[in-house]
Amino acid sequence: QVQLVESGGGLVQPGGSLRLSCVVSGADFAARRMGWYRQAPGEQRDLVASITISGDTYLKDSMKGRFAISRDNAKETMYLQMNSLKPEDTAVYYCNSFPVNWGWGQGTQVTVSS
User: Fold this and answer.
1) Under a CB-based contact definition with an 8 Å cutoff, are residues 78 and 70 in contact?
2) 107: closest CA among 69, 73, 80?
3) Is 35 exposed, middle or buried (0-12, 13-18, 19+ CB in 10 A)?
4) Average pLDDT of the chain to the nearest whole number
5) What are the tens digits of pLDDT across the range 20-62?
6) C-alpha gyration radius of the chain
7) CB 50 within 8 Å of CB 96
8) pLDDT at 13
9) What's the rounded Cα separation, in Å, for the pair 47 and 65?
10) What whole-number distance in Å separates Cα of residue 71 and Cα of residue 28?
C-alpha cells in the first residue's frame, strides 16, 4: 500500500522560507511523475508544481521565481523549497503522483503570517 508522508510545514513570517519533504513508500516512486498540491480553507486542492522522472519541472505561474521542486529517487523523496512566502501561500500542502494516482497523505500545514 502506498504511503505518502509530508513534513516541513510550519508558521513563517511573510518573506520567509520553508522546505517541504514528501517521503513515498510502497510505490514505484522513480517511475512516477510527482506533484505538490495545496488546499487553502474553503478552496479546492490544486497543483502547485510537478517534476518528471528525469527532473523536468513545472511551477504554477504565481510560484515561479519563489518555489523550486526537486526529487531524490534513491531516497524516494520529493522536496518543495519555498522562498519569499506570502500570506496567500497559506494552505495544507500535499504530495501525490501527477496525475493523482494514490490516496492522500495527511499533508503539512503552511501558515504565512506576521
Assistant:
1) yes
2) 80
3) buried
4) 97
5) 999 999 999 999 999 999 999 999 999 999 999 999 999 999 9
6) 13
7) no
8) 98
9) 17
10) 14
